[in-house]
Amino acid sequence: MQNTTTPTSGRRFGYTISILVNFFMIYVANNLLRWNVPFLTERFNECLWAITLSISVSIFVQFIHLFYDPKWFRRLMQAMANVFSLFSTYVFWRVFPLDLSENIARVVNLAIIIIMVLTALSIFIELGGAVRHYTKKTV
User: pLDDT tens across 57-104, in order?
Assistant: First the structure.
C-alpha cells in the first residue's frame, strides 16, 4: 500500500458523499424544532450552534481530504474533528434539550456520558495513529 498525498477516485467519491450527507445533517438539525419532534424542547436551540459547528468541521475535514490525503494527516484531522464532536456532545449533555420520562432521561444521560468517554478515547487513538504513520513515513 503506497502512501500518497492525493486520494484515489474511490476515496474522493466517498469524501464527496460524506460532505453531502453532512450538509443534509445540518439541514435536518436546523429543522427539527420546526418539524415538531415531540421529545425535543426549545432548549435545543441552545446547543444547535455546537452541533452545527461540529458537522461543519467534519465537512471542512472531508473537503481538505479531497486534495490532500496521506494516512497520518487523515488520522490527525479525524482527531481534530473528534474534538469538536466531543465538544458538541458535551454542550448537548449540559443543555439536555430532551423531554423524557425520568427513567429514560437517566439512561440517555448515561449513554451520552459513555459516548463522550469513547469519543475522548478515539481522539487519543487517532493522535497515536497519526504519529505512528507520520514516523513510519519519515523513517
Answer: 999 999 999 999 999 999 999 999 999 999 999 999 999 999 999 999
* Residue closest to 77 by CA, chosen among 60, 63, 61: 61
Helix (H) or strand (E) holding 121: helix 102-138
| Rg value, the chain, Cα | 18
Q: Looking at residue 6, what DSSP letter applies?
A: S
The three cell numbers locating residue 77: 484531522
**Cα(51)–Cα(66) distance, integer angstroms:** 23
Residue type (1 letter), 115: I
Give the bridge partners for 40, in sequence order. Answer: 98
Assess contact for 75 and 11: CB atoms under 8 A.
no
CA atoms within 13 A on the CB side of 47: 24
Closest C-alpha to 40, from 114, 96, 94, 88:
96
pTM score, whole prediction = 0.91
